[in-house]
Amino acid sequence: MRTKDFKRVYVWELPVRIFHWVNVMCIVVLGATGFMIADPPPIMSAAEASESFWFGTIRAIHFGTAYIFFFNMLMRIYWSFVGNRFASWKQFLPFTKKAWHNFIHVVKIDVLLQNEKKFDLTNISVGHNSVAAFSYLVLFFLALIQVFTGFGLYADNSGWWLPKLFAWVPDFLGGDFITRTIHHVTTWLFILFTLVHVYLVFYHDWLEGRGEVSSMFGGYKFVRDERVKEKVEQTQPEEESTIEQC
Fold this sequence. Notes:
Layout: E1 6-10, H1 14-38, H2 43-46, H3 53-82, H4 97-111, H5 130-154, H6 161-164, H7 169-173, H8 176-208, H9 215-218, E2 220-224, H10 225-232, E3 243-245
Antiparallel strand pairs: 1-2, 1-3
């Protein structure tokens, strides 16, 4: 493809990019500290309590990061109603006929690695493709599970009203053990999602050359001219200024 066939499109707004990288940080820290809390190092059983306070620091980091994760998620929900169309909550509901067509295409090409018999420009998404949109919707529900079970387990040890709002969760699920198990299993689902997500991002960046990786730093993607024209027809006037000729 020739460079002149592409236009520079502002896709990911600053709040979306901030949410993304804060989320990355939170998932890494929560995962690392969570596994240490679930399975403390052997040295914990031999050391004196006065020498093991660092483990309390690990718990404090885990709980503090959980608060950041929670409020960051609330910010993203808010921005899904006030941000541009690429950030809109509507993008995460791929239930139209066109969206399902794109969903099947992405599964065939990205997951099953089949070749396209005929190049279809409409299958190149400017924002999220349908598989990504659906996976983020699933991720949102996984995040809710983590919030409810995590704060539910923390409620008895917290003096703040926010975690105590979730004190009913362990009783509802049948006790601390099952609540902790659900929390732990969901962590592994987050890890699985992260591995697939990173693979697909770099795969698209290499295959399509549209700045998939750099777009989450600067906000811009490079989109085929014909695809931009199709999208501009559905775009509000104030958003048209975000499209630049290369």
